[in-house]
């Protein structure tokens, strides 16, 4: 289910607790990847610090909406199209990798496959919400 929140460009996607956990994990991984890009260093300029603060604020807000990946029921994730599209793409790629992975020494292959399928399902929910909003705008 999706809705456009007010007149803003924010889209709300309702996700299950399992999907919220997977999306929260994707957000944390995205934050770590963007943080490791090396743009923040000991002699960072004001612009770099502001970029870091903005990134942390964005991720913290998203994680808060998802109740840090441990909600007791369905939750709404509100974000703009670009961000939701990024999250969906990350989930889809990660899910496809999990499904394709046959041998994982720490986990039973079926557990990894299920996790991958859940990630793909979460990506589909986001893509569906984005498609619904596009179809409403066309009308």
Considering DSSP H and I runs of 4 or more, what fraction of the residues is helical? 55-70%
Lateral strand order in the biggest sheet:
1-2-3
| Count of separate DSSP helical elements | 4
Mean pLDDT: 84
Structure in words:
It is a single chain. Strand 1 (2-4) and strand 2 (10-15) form a beta hairpin. The protein has a three-stranded antiparallel β-sheet with strand order 1-2-3. It has one domain (2-138). The two termini are 18 Å apart. The protein is 64% helix and 11% strand. By secondary structure, the chain is mainly α. It has four helices and three strands; from the N terminus they run E-E-H-H-E-H-H.
What would the keywords be for this entry?
139 residues; mainly alpha; 11% strand; disordered N terminus; three-stranded antiparallel β-sheet
Secondary structure: elements and pairs:
Elements: E1 2-4, E2 10-15, H1 17-35, H2 46-65, E3 75-80, H3 81-100, H4 109-138
Antiparallel strand pairs: 1-2, 2-3
Helix pairs in contact: 1-2, 1-4, 3-4
Give a quick precis of the structure:
Helix 1 (17-35) packs antiparallel against helix 2, helix 1 packs across helix 4 (109-138) and helix 3 runs antiparallel to helix 4.
